[in-house]
Design a protein that fits this description.
This protein is an alpha/beta fold. Helix content is about 35%, strand content about 15%. It is globular and about 65 Å long. The chain binds cobalamin.
C-alpha cells in the first residue's frame, strides 16, 4: 500500500516539535509499504497543501496524526477539532483512500472524536502494534479487525469501538524513527525529542497521560535510547536542545539514573530538559542528571496548599517540593515549577497561599497556569463565582508580575508570547523559555 502519513499539528508555541509519535508509527510499518510523510506544520494553507499532496500521491491509505486537540492559546478552551474536521474533508475530496486517525490528541477522547470526524478507522494510544495490525487486516479484506485493541470505526449506525489491547509494546523492540524525513524548517527551533519509556504510575486526578500510554512503566534499554539520540543528531545536526518527553523522567529513578550514566559514558554534549517529580527524586539522580547535561527540571508542583495537593492525588506535600528545590539548587540544576491556580473548590485564599509558598520557595523559574472551567456547562451561580475568582486571580498576578520576572503566566501572556519566543530564538537561545528567564525575559 502507499500510505500518506500526515502530521496535522501546526502549533509552534512554545516550539515547533517534530512529529515523533507519527515517525515511530512509520518506523513500525512494514517495509513492503510505500511510506510518505506529509507535514503541515509550516504550510501557509494546510488544506491546500494537503489536497495538493494527496492528489499527487493518490495513496491507498491516509494516516492522520492529531497531536493537540487544544490550541496553545492557554487563555481559553479553544480547540482544533474544526481544523481536523477540515483536514478530513480535504482528504476525502482529494483521494478515495480510507482515513485512519491517531495521536495523543485523538487518544484523550477517542469515541467522541470518531463520532465527530467520521474517519474510517482510528487508533487510540500507542500505534506501533495496532497500526501494522490494521494494515494486515485491510490486506486480508478486513479479517481480524475485531481483534485490534482500541480500534474505533465510524459507521452510519454509530461508532464501533474495540476494547483496549491487553498488552503494550515491549519498548526494547521500538524501532528508531527516521528523522531524515523531518521538514528542515524544524531546524530553526533547534529542539528534538526523545522518549526513554512509556507509562505513568501516578494518579494525579486531572491528568490524561495514563490514557495515552498506560500506567505500567515500560522502559527502553539505555544504550538504545542513547543510540537513537546520536543517530538523531547526525540526521538533525541543528539540534541545540533535547526534550525528554516522558511524562515523568525520574520515575522509576533507577532507569533514569541508568540513562544518565549511559549519556555520561558516551560523552553526550547537547543540553536536555525533562519533567521531574518530587517523588523518587534523590541527590544521586540530581548529580547524575547534571553531569549528563541536564539543563533543567520541569516540576509539576501544582499547589502550595497540602490539602489541595492531597485532593489532586499528587502523593507529595509542600515538604517534598521544598526538598526537590533544595537538591536542584545544591547541584546547580535550574528548576521550574508549574502551579495550577483556581482549581475546582479553591478559594482566593488558597491561591494566595500557593503564591506565598512560591515566593518563599524562590525556584529558578515558575509557570503559573490558571484553571479554566467549561463555563457554559456550569449552573449560573457557580459560573458567576468561578468567573469572579478567575478575575481576582488575574488581577493578583498582574499586580505581582513586575516583582517576579522569572514567572510566566501563559494565560495572561506574561513572559509568554510569540514575540518573546522569536526574540529568544533570534538571539540563539534554545530549549524551554524559562531557562532563559533570569536574563532574557527581563528585557
Ligand atoms: C512532552 C510533551 C510536550 C513538550 C514537547 C517537547 C518536544 N520537544 O517534543 C512541550 C512542553 C513543548 C509540550 C507542549 C505542548 N503540549 Co504537550 N505533551 C507532551 C507529552 C508529555 C508527550 C508527547 C510526546 O512526545 N510523546 C511521545 C510520542 C512518541 O507519543 P505520541 O505522540 O502520543 O505518539 C504515539 C501515539 O499517540 C500514536 N500516534 C501518534 N500519531 C499517530 C498517528 C496515527 C495515524 C496513529 C494510528 C497513531 C499515532 O502512536 C505513537 C507511538 O506510540 C504529552 C502527554 C503524553 N504523555 O503523551 C503532552 C501533550 C501531547 N501535549 C498537549 C498539549 C495540549 C500541548 C500544548 C498545546 C500546550 C499545553 N497546553 O501543554 C503544546 C503544543 C506544542 C506543539 N508545538 O505542538 C496535550 C495534547 C492533547 C490535548 N489536550 O490537546 C498532551 C497529550 C498533554 C495533555 N494535556 O493531555 N508538550
Amino acid at each position: 500500500m502507499r500510505i500518506a502519513f500526515v502530521s496535522g499539528n501546526r502549533e509552534k508555541l512554545p516550539d515547533a516539535v517534530t512529529p515523533l509519535g507519527l515517525l515511530y508509527v512509520m518506523a513500525a510499518t512494514p517495509e513492503h509499504h510505500e511510506k510518505v510523510l506529509v507535514d503541515l506544520c509550516f504550510e501557509t494553507d494546510a488544506n491546500a497543501a494537503l489536497a495538493r499532496e494527496l492528489e499527487r500521491l493518490q495513496p491507498d491509505l491516509v494516516a492522520l496524526g492529531m497531536r493537540n486537540i487544544q490550541n496553545n492559546d492557554y487563555s481559553g478552551l479553544k480547540d482544533n477539532i474544526d481544523y481536523y474536521a477540515g483536514l478530513v474533508r480535504t482528504a476525502r475530496a482529494a483521494c478515495s483512500a480510507p482515513i485512519v486517525l491517531g495521536g495523543s490528541g485523538f487518544s484523550v477522547m477517542p469515541a467522541e472524536l470518531t463520532e465527530r470526524l467520521k474517519p474510517d478507522f482510528a487508533i487510540a494510544g500507542e500505534g506501533e502494534l495496532a497500526f501494522p495490525a490494521l494494515l494486515a487486516a485491510l490486506e486480508a479484506d478486513g479479517a481480524g479487525l475485531d481483534a485490534i485493541g482500541a480500534l474505533h470505526r465510524w459507521t452510519p449506525a454509530g461508532v464501533v469501538s474495540n476494547p483496549p489491547a491487553p498488552g503494550f509494546l515491549d519498548m526494547a523492540t521500538l524501532e528508531p524513527p527516521d528523522r531524515s524525513l523531518v521538514d528542515p524548517r524544524y531546524a530553526a527551533y533547534g529542539i528534538d525529542s526523545v522518549q526513554t519509556k512509556r507509562g505513568c504510575p501516578l494518579t494525579c486526578d486531572y491528568c490524561t497521560y495514563p490514557i495515552i500510554e498506560g500506567r505500567v512503566g515500560r522502559t527502553r534499554p539505555p544504550a538504545q535510547i542513547v543510540d537513537e539520540m546520536f543517530r538523531a543528531l547526525e540526521q538533525q545536526p541543528a539540534t541545540r536542545h533535547v526534550f525528554i518527553v516522558d511524562s515523568v523522567f525520574n520515575l522509576p529513578v533507577v532507569h533514569a539514573k541508568n540513562v544518565c550514566r549511559e549519556l555520561i559514558a558516551r560523552d553526550w554534549q547537547v543540553p536536555w530538559t525533562c519533567y521531574a517529580n518530587p517523588l523518587g527524586f534523590d541527590r544521586e539522580f540530581a548529580e547524575l542528571a547534571r553531569e549528563a547535561g541536564c539543563a533543567g527540571m520541569e516540576i509539576g508542583s501544582d499547589s502550595g496548599v497540602d490539602a489541595i495537593l492531597k485532593r489532586m492525588r499528587k502523593g507529595f506535600t509542600k515538604q517534598h517540593i521544598r526538598r526537590i528545590h533544595e537538591l536542584c539548587t545544591e547541584v546547580g540544576l535550574p528548576d521550574c515549577h508549574t502551579f495550577i491556580l483556581a482549581t475546582e473548590g479553591e478559594t482566593i485564599d488558597d491561591v494566595r497561599a500557593t503564591l506565598d509558598f512560591l515566593v518563599e520557595l524562590d525556584p529558578f523559574a515558575a509557570i503559573l497556569m490558571v484553571w479554566i472551567d467549561d463555563y457554559e456547562a456550569l449552573d449560573p451561580t457557580l459560573r458567576a463565582s468561578r468567573l469572579a475568582l478567575r478575575d481576582e486571580v488575574e488581577a493578583l498576578l498582574h499586580s505581582m508580575k513586575d516583582h517576579h520576572r522569572h514567572w510566566s503566566v501563559p494565560a495572561l501572556q506574561i513572559n509568554f508570547d510569540e514575540k518573546l519566543f522569536a526574540y529568544l530564538r533570534k538571539s540563539g537561545r534554545h530549549g524551554p523559555l524559562w531557562q532563559h528567564s533570569r536574563g532574557a525575559i527581563a528585557r
